[in-house]
Amino acid sequence: MSDGKSFSRFYPKRTGDPGRDRNAQTLQFACLLFAIAIGIAVAWDVISREPIPIPLVSAALGGLCAAAVLNHAGRPTSAGRIVILALLLCAVLRVVHASDGFRSHAMLMFPGVLLLSVMLLDRSSYVTTAGIVMLTVAALGIAEKHGLFGAIPPVRTPTNYESIFLIELILVAFSLVGSRIARDAQSNVSDLYASISQLSSVNFELRKTAEALRQNEQQLASIYNTVGDVIFHLAVESEGQFRFISVNAAFLKVTGLSREAVVGRTVNEVVPEPSLTTVLGKYRQAIEENTIVCWEETSDYPTGRLTGEVSVTPVFDQTGKCTQLVGSVHDITERKRAETALRESEQQLVSIYNTVRDVIFHLSVEPEGQFRFASVNAAFLRSRD
Same structural domain for residues 143 and 31? Predict the structure, then answer.
C-alpha cells in the first residue's frame, strides 16, 4: 500500500494499530477499484449503445462512495457491508444484461463476492451475505427458466470481445483486492510474530527484574531481621487505631512475643500499660506535626524490661493522609545501668571524700598562673574553723 502524500487524505487516519490500518486502507482501495471497474463497464456499454439501468448503476456507485466515506470516518464494518451489497448488485446487473453465452459467466462474480465477504466482514455479516447470495442466484435461475429476462434470449448471440473484456475487468478487480487482502494477512501475521517476540523479550526482562527485586527483598529482609535495634511498621486505620504490619526479629526477642501474636494486631493489644498511653500520644503527635518524634520509654514485657530511645516517622500518601508509621527502638538498658552504677560510684567517692580525717583539696590552675580551689572535703572546712 502506498504511504505517499497523495494518498494521505484518501486513506483513513491511522489508529496506531498496524493490522487495523492495513485492513482499512485495503477496504478503501477496494471501494476505489470497484468504482473504477463499474465506470469502465458503463462507459463501454455507452459506446456499444447497450441499454444501461441508470438507477441500479447509480445505486451501486453511490454505495461504493458511501462505503469509502464511512471507512474514512473510522467505521470499517459498516463500509464493508455496503461494499459487498454494491458488488452483489453489480453481479446481478451483469447477469441480467448478458447478451451472449460467455458474458453470462458473470455468475462467477457471486463466488467472488462470497470470498471477499469472508475477508472483509465478521462472521455474522458473512452468514447473512451468504444467504442473500444463495437467494439471489436461485431467483436468477428461476427467472431465466421462466423467460422473465428479455435480455437473455433463448438463442444466445456469439461471444464478442466486449464480453471478454468486461468479464476480465471484473476478475482483475477481484484479483487485485484479493492480493491486497492476502498481503495484509501476511503482514498482520508478521506483526503478530514480531509482537510475540517483543513480548517474549519484555517478559524475559520482567523476569530478570522480578528476580532482582526478589533478591533485594531477601537482602532487605535479612538486614531487617539482623539489626540489633527494634523495628516495627504500623498501619494507621480510619478509626484512629494503629495495627502492626511487620516487626523484625529484635522486636520479638525483646518482647518475648511470637510473630503471630503481634502482626495483624493493634498497638492496644500488644503494648502494655502504662507505656501504652504515652506511645499513642507520641504516634498522634508525629501525625499531627508531620515530623519524626523521639522519646525515651521503659516498657515491661514477658522477657523483662526494655528501656530504649524510641522514634516514629509518619508516611503520607498522595492525598496528604497519613497511612503508615515506621518506628525503631534503640535499647539503652545497658547504658542506663552504667549511668546508675556511675552515679552510685560517685556518691560513694563523695562519701569517702568527706569522711576521711585528712584534709583534701582540689585546685585548678588558671592561665594567669593563679590557683583556684575546685573542691575541698569536710576535714578541710573543719581545719579552717
Answer: yes
